[in-house]
Each structure stands twice: as C-alpha cells, then as structure tokens.
C-alpha cells in the first residue's frame, strides 16, 4: 500500500476549516459512500494492544433521536445533523476479549494462535494491573473520536463532539446495558448552516511555541 500524499497545506486547511458545528442543515445528508468511509475511519482507529474496547452506534431513527434530544440539553445538533454517533465502551473488558482479539489476529494475518500466546499473556497481565478497566477503555474511545473528526474534516464534513448529555438516559433509550456497552461521548456529523455564527469566527488557539516544546 502506497503512502498517502496529502500536502501539509491541505491538511492544515481542513483542520482550520473544522470547528464544533452548532447549527446543521437538516436538509443535507452525507452521501452513502462518504459516510461509509467515515465508519471505516472509526473501525481503523488505533487502540492500545489493538483491543478495540468499543462499539459505535449510529442513530438513524428520528424518533429515537427525538427522545435523546431531551437528554442532550436540547442541543439541536442531535436532530439536525445528517448522522449521529454514540461512541461507547464495552463494559468490563476481560480475558475473553483478549482471546477474541488474538483469534482475530490469527485469522487476518494467517498465523498460528499458539504463536500469539506470549503477546496474549502480556496483554492479560497488563489488564490485571488496571485499577478501573472501564476508565481505561473510556480514554481509548477518545482516540476514535479524534480520528472520526479529522477524517470528516478531510472529506469536507462538519462534526460536533458532544459531552453535554446524560449517559444513563442514553444507555436506557438505546438499550446499551443489555448489549454490554456504556455510552461515553456523542458526535454529530453533517453540513453547517451559514447562519451558524461560530462558522465565521477566527479559530482561537495559543501559539505553537506556547504548546509545543522540544526537549
């Protein structure tokens, strides 16, 4: 596979264009092919040991979105965005999940499962030393969120990460506990409205020299 050939300028242009969109155009939908690429960007997100301690729930049902609105402080993005993703962790990650991951490596790379035993032991030993595995998994989810938002920006798709929601209510409405998952963060995706004043404001960041230090 050849290395990608994005220019530095094009990447920075996309990142400067991106902002946390407050107002989406409800009449515009992300094309199927583009959304498929964004779903793949979530699946391709890196995770520690490659365990992928997550699942991404795309809420297509408008009636369900209407219910979620009440528990998202009435933020209109929940209804108006083309797509709404609830990023969730698999609760209580354990050795069974490690075994499943090893089996997948064996399948995809065509290696004997026995040859992965040393790696498996390392991962299981690491997990035994984690005081709160769900907190660890939660931090992993934010890696996937970041990858989704950057990928969207490169494709000209607007996003808005949403932490202002009530996870317990979301979980109940979506039936996540029965599936063994718990919501962590929400991301709306679609197309901005020109009336969104935040789309026209300069991006505020401290200078690079204030935030990046070479040692």
From TrEMBL:
Family under the similarity heading: Belongs to the nitroreductase family.
Q: Which cofactor does it need?
A: FMN
Any keyword Oxidoreductase?
yes
One example of the protein's molecular function in GO is: oxidoreductase activity
What is the species of this protein?
Adonisia turfae CCMR0082
Q: Which residues belong to any copy of the Nitroreductase domain?
A: 16-191
Q: Which UniProt keywords apply?
A: Flavoprotein, FMN, NADP, Oxidoreductase
Gene3D superfamilies listed in its UniProt record: NADH Oxidase
What is the protein name stated in its UniProt record? NAD(P)H-dependent oxidoreductase
Q: Which InterPro entries match?
A: NfsB-like (IPR033878), Nitroreductase (IPR029479), Nitroreductase-like (IPR000415)
């Amino acid at each position: 596979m050849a290395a990608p050939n994005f220019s530095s300028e094009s990447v920075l242009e996309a990142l400067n264009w991106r902002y946390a969109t407050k107002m989406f155009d409800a009449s515009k939908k992300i094309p199927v092919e583009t959304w498929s690429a964004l779903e793949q960007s979530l699946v391709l997100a890196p995770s520690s040991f490659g365990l992928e301690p997550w699942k991404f729930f795309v809420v297509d049902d408008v009636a369900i979105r209407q219910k979620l609105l009440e528990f998202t402080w009435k933020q209109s993005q929940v209804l108006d965005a083309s797509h709404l993703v609830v990023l969730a962790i698999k609760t209580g990650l354990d050795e069974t999940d490690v075994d499943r991951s090893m089996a997948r490596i064996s399948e995809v790379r065509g290696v004997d499962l026995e040859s992965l035993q040393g790696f498996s032991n390392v991962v299981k030993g690491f997990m035994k030393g984690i005081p709160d595995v769900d907190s660890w998994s939660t931090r992993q989810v934010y890696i996937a969120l970041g990858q989704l938002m950057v990928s969207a920006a490169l494709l000209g798709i607007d996003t808005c990460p949403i932490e202002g929601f009530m996870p317990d209510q979301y979980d109940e409405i979506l039936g996540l506990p029965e599936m063994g998952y718990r919501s962590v963060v929400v991301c709306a995706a679609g197309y901005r409205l020109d009336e969104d004043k935040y789309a026209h404001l300069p991006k505020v960041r401290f200078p690079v020299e204030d935030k990046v230090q070479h040692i």
